[in-house]
Amino acid sequence: MTTIQKQTGNVLEATRSTTRRPPLYKVLLLNDDFTPMDFVVVVLQKYFAMNREQATRIMLQVHREGMGMCGVFTKDVASTKVEQVVAYARQHQHPLACVMEENE
Q1: How far apart are the first and last CA of the chain?
Q2: The pTM is what?
């Protein structure tokens, strides 16, 4: 919250203005039948700073439920993570899909 001082005539008035937090976005991995599970674990460790146990848990969620959340970030960070994961997967010839959606 910011306090702005405004002078009207001879009186200095303080008014408060609030700044809204930027919207956040979930980064999701989507299941496919071709990307090896071990590769998904590596992606989660490399791009989302997860330990092996956390990464394995999310990988199994992706496998069983069709998608798993990797984290919640600002729009720019989420977009960058999606691009990095997709580029890394393509570089290793895997069809792993990574998307972002607004966090509600």
Answers
A1: 23
A2: 0.81
